[in-house]
Amino acid sequence: MTLDELEQIANEVQAAKEKSPRALNVCVAAGCLSLHSDAIKSALEKEVQRTGVNCRVAGTGCMGLCSLGPLVNREPDGQLLKNVAEADAAEIVEKLESVPPERLLCSREQPFFQRQTAVVLENSGRINPEKIEEYIAAEGYQALVRALTEMAPAQIVQEVSKSGLRGRGGAGYPTGLKWGTVAKTIGTTKYVICNADEGDPGAFMDRSVLESDPHRVLEGMIVAGYAVGASQGYIYVRAEYPLAIKRLQAAIRDARRLGFLGSQICNAKFSFDIEIRIGGGAFVCGEETALIASIEGRRGTPRPRPPFPAQSGLWQMPTLINNVESFANIPTILRRGGEWYASLGTKKSKGTKVFALCGKVRNVGLIEVPMGTPLRQIIFEIGGGIPDGHRFKAVQTGGPSGGCIPEQSLDLPVDYESLKEVGSIMGSGGMIVMDDSACMVNVARYFMEFCMSESCGKCIPCRAGTAQMFELLTRMTSGTATPQDLELLEDLCDMVSSTSLCGLGQSAPNPVLSTLRYFREEYTEHIVDKHCRAGVCECNHLAEVSA
Amino acid sequence: MNPAPAVKTLAIDGIDVSASSDQTILDAARENGISIPTLCHLDGLTEVGACRMCLVELKGSTRLQPACVTLVEEGMEVTTRTPRLEKYRRMVLELLFAERNHVCSVCVANNMCELQDQAKAHGVTHVRFPYRSPELPVDVSHERFALDHNRCILCTRCVRVCNEIEGAHTWDLLGRGVNSLLISDLHQPWGESDTCTSCGKCVQVCPTGALFDKSKVGGKVRKNPDFLSYLNEMREGLR
Amino acid sequence: MSKPTLATVWLDGCSGCHMSILDMDERLVELSEQFDLVYSPLVDYKEFPAHVDIALIEGSVSSDEDDRKIRLVRAHTRVLVSLGDCAVTGNVPAMRNPIPVPELLDSVYKGNGLLQEQVPTHCLPTLLPRVRPVHEVVNVDVFVPGCPPSADTIFTIISELLAGRVPDVAALSRFGA
Questions:
Q1: ipTM
Q2: Which chains neighbour B (Cβ–Cβ under 8 Å, 3 or more pairs)?
């Protein structure tokens, strides 16, 4: 494959579009699909066939505003249709040439769309994820061909370093540095692993990228393989994402067909292939050493680091392991240059970040904003604020390893350092908005239950400590806790975070610590007054009985 | 070829010691008569770094490191006993006692149990955490040995000795978190295991009364895991 | 000045800890000159006094009666000592904890070829859903594990407490000892 051949494919796609400029693109990513957008797609296809109009009907990836789904994007005018039902098919097709029905119109002028900057999601909702040609028409695989034909591996590492990209799995380790380490480590074989074991409650960023634009991830991985000298890649994806798996399988097949995977890719002295490994449903397998153990066919438990996977990873070989979103950034970084990417974001956190905005917020969906965007803008402008007359209470970022951020910190720019400072973490990008109907003790209990049931059980602090913390929190929500229980809980938070073997245990106390930091009075109310101000805990009932 | 290990000098609890670069902090400490508490570690088995009893402080690092897997480095300054470390060690022990039903007074290993020894050594006279009191089975199906899950601390010494030394891999773990359970083969009764050779190594390495010899109940017989280093030396031709 | 007062209390335990107290033998004579034994299963007082300096508690909190009693003892005691594994850990009485109380009573009082199958309730304390160590119910000042703690241990503990010192229990005894 050469750049000219890529251009030819792109031209063919373009020509086909020009021949038939009208199109209805139905979102068939997880959110809309769960509202049966596949049935809407077939209804539209039938209607087009019945009326004989010249219009393509295609499935695309996520368009972002999931709460108004199912969404349909109309070409060539780019009108977005919301809350589409099968019954609307006839009217939509009938009005193809004119203004769509008012009730279905979804303005692209609203802040939800206007305030976003798409890099990772640039093709999401615009191309058919099951057609490699459409990805190529959107400049896909150009970065790979250029990298293989014009750049030395070290140059690629340099470009990634220049971009300032940091690991999007949550910890924020500089990606370029990691690539450089793996590239410099000597090993007979090296591996590239894509961590797609997204498991945080409320997080669906990686899922959406895989379902909407799988080739972007493959391209990032192949480039990485060339840059670090690896010949085999693995995508570790959780079994709960069957659609993502299906699209990845199709994408890998297509990439092999066009010679982006296999031996002597683009006639370079570089061979690389990718296999999918399906996770068995353990959250801890998102931890890199546990993930590697799982790929090796062993029980998915973490091991002490060092050695880090960059030195000794899969089958004791140097292994590069990055998250889906990190790889998805690579094609654009190479195409537009590391400097361009570094111009987005803040001093220490470059580029953009995808967030899964959910909870008590009007616009639930997938968004991408430059690093440094204030939380207030994300929640109140892009998110449209809190519905049903409720008041904002806190936003939870970073999943079970993260924390709850209160109203007084809403002007915080979203970047790795600022979030850490207020007791949360960037995490992989889950963002759960909570209003005054949420009890913070109960929220902490919910996350502790998650950590307890997802603890692998290898190290004692995490295995038994999370179970004890859950028991203590349960006493609080059920109104049987004493002030000593709070002391014990704080002792355990300190001990579990300081002594656990892996990140899961080390960060498990975070939801408790952050809610204690900002909402301590709610804990006291539960323990002393047996009162839950949000009215969700059992302890209120107890207080009534004894009164 | 790996280069020959170099000699490193470091300080453990203020005492200057030398060690070869392939030694862990635990090796170096024990060689020099400095004791660091352990539970999952056993000489002769691979390390898992799971019990966290051997965590030590390293100067210049905020993270505590497990002495059993951390290799010595030049100029390292290790502290093995601080109020903070001792507090965490006591909590590890308390968590273990509260996790399952360790009723020392009626245990076959009473007075011969490493968990009990550690509790005494660390001044654990009571457990502040609520006892979880889970319902757990006892497997007495094997003709010579028995497994009482109530006393298991999931240190995986038995799993490792069975896999690494005996080569049978009869034991492994089922489930995760507090629901983890030691199982033989594919969760069959021990007595029906096709792989178990009845060698009894697992019984000897078990630090508590979880695995025991039925014929020795009430006999007050200490377990003897020391055969491991002997076997390893034999294997390496040192004996 | 009057002598310090001592009480011993028997909750859910086998009385082994009290046997161990008696095992101090002739030392008891010497020791008893230093305190007044104001309440104990070993003596005849029926009411727990208003003020007790040291109370040694044997046994776990297993019934509503135990619960009531230990709260009363705590309210009138300066130094409360959990004596022995039942008080400290729940020990053997707590082995019933994984089993729901109704199931437990049924398995004891019904079936097995018993002539009169009935769960006794009249004039008997009600079992709590879970057996708990003393410190889960009230504050405990000194913990003395052991099943039972040896006479030597108990002698040292009482002597130290009478001398106004906090004994180093860990050096003396341990769980199951």
A1: 0.95
A2: A, C
